[in-house]
């Protein structure tokens, strides 16, 4: 995961500085193909080379530069990544890049329908009530979120699994008409062969989980094992976990949630029943 973060940060810094990949190749003594591999997380970068490139890219913030050089030094290590490190310099951009590369996404949602399943009207109603979003940027946030949904609908889509607490269906954003359309959309997406959508009702014997999370599996470019990670977000921070024990813990939690939730057909009938109530 550190190698992936390193590639994302170096690519973004280069693009922001307007530096051509050919110049980077010359500075590193490599050809442009290897620069492309480095910026896609397929090849590493030494701490010295990382610092040299950051100086060329005019990255002046010493804390930011130190964090990225540390990524280059520890790129082969696994562990727990905290949001203040993961958000240098792009906040949630690393997660979005991971999401695009994933071939398996498993999400447990509480309180609201997750972004990958939201209609545009639901998005706008929710964002208007959000303390984290500047009203002037809502159009950009909506456009980004709609673009992210292509991971489900593209030619070679990811396999996606959702377990949604009943609270996701009951928390009203935008009024009954918006919620009815959102339920209809959930039912339509649930019919796709690459989607497994389950509802965890309030009266489930197993109970729920008080926080949402997302598990991602990103295939490796070679015969190496895929990258498996967990993303957990809160108001000011985000945790990125790729340690084997932590990923295994969340895998067991996911198994319990899917076992406690309604089956696929039961879940669709449940969603249709809620849709009728909003209608």
TrEMBL record:
It holds the Pfam family DUF5753. GO terms for molecular function: DNA binding. Residues 10-64 form the HTH cro/C1-type domain. It comes from the Bacteria. SMART domains: HTH_XRE. InterPro entries: Cro/C1-type_HTH, DUF5753, Lambda_DNA-bd_dom_sf. This is HTH cro/C1-type domain-containing protein. It comes from Saccharothrix tamanrassetensis.
């Amino acid at each position: 995961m550190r190698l992936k973060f390193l590639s994302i940060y170096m690519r973004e810094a280069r693009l922001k500085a307007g530096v051509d990949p050919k110049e980077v190749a010359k500075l590193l003594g490599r050809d442009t193909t290897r620069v492309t591999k480095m910026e896609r997380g397929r090849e590493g970068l030494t701490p010295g080379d990382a610092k040299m490139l950051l100086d060329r890219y005019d990255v002046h913030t010493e804390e930011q530069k130190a964090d990225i050089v540390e990524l280059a030094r520890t790129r082969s290590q696994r562990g727990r990544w905290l949001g203040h490190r993961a958000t240098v310099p792009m906040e949630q951009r690393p997660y979005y890049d991971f999401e695009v590369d994933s071939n398996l996404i498993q999400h447990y949602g509480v309180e609201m329908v997750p972004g990958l399943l939201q209609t545009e009207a639901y998005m706008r109603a929710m964002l208007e009530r959000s303390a984290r979003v500047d009203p002037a940027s809502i159009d950009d946030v909506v456009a980004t979120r709609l673009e992210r949904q292509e991971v489900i609908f593209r030619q070679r889509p990811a396999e996606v699994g959702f377990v949604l607490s009943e609270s996701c269906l009951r928390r009203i954003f935008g009024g009954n008409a918006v919620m009815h359309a959102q339920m209809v959309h959930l039912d339509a997406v649930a019919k796709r062969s690459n989607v497994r959508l389950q509802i965890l009702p309030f009266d489930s014997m197993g109970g729920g989980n008080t926080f949402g999370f997302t598990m991602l599996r990103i295939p490796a470019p070679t015969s190496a094992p895929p990258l498996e990670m967990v993303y957990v977000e809160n108001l000011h921070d985000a945790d990125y976990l790729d340690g084997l024990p932590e990923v295994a813990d969340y895998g067991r939690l996911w198994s319990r949630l899917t076992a406690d939730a309604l089956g696929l057909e039961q879940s669709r009938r449940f969603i249709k029943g809620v849709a009728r109530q909003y209608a």
